[in-house]
Amino acid sequence: MLFIWCAGYPSNGDPSEWEEFKELGKDLFTKQSIKYNEWMREEGFPINTNNKAITDSPYLNVYGYPEELDYIDIRPLPDKWFRVDAFMRKGEQEFKIPDQIRERDEQKSQLIYLSMGSMGSVDVNLMKRFVAILSKSNHKFIVSKGVRGDEYELADNMWVRSRFRRQKCCH
User: Fold this and answer.
1) Whether this model's pTM surpasses 0.90
2) Which residue of 83, 107, 122, 161 has the smallest Cβ count within 10 Å?
3) 114: Cβ–Cβ under 8 A, 6 or more apart, which residues?
4) Residue 38 to residue 49: CA distance in whole angstroms
């Protein structure tokens, strides 16, 4: 099932509803695969001929994903695949929320972590809309701005660090 993981369809829903989305995903994948193979050929590497986004290693395949969200009860792991809950960076990193965020009306506000992930955060207009809407909230936000984060500003009730360990602040 190509790209169903990001469609928002329920795992126990009607699979016939997935068909239109799967077709769109296949079309996008085909276009990207052609570009990728052209680049691989130009660089002197073998091209991908198995029609998969990632070629399985015959030795070991490792991916990071939380066990609670992985659906291994309805989709067992293929042979030679290994899941880890998180990839951890080495070294300790102090995590301290700035005073202007921490002290913001503690009776009426919660601290919320906002991340749209790699795919969502590249949509700068979407991120600007989130900032505009959430700036009206009493809550305070730690925002993961993504790779295009320098293209927009955050509101006063928001804070970002270019790099920090989510595991350190959001446990």
Assistant:
1) no
2) 107
3) 130, 134, 141, 142, 143, 144
4) 12
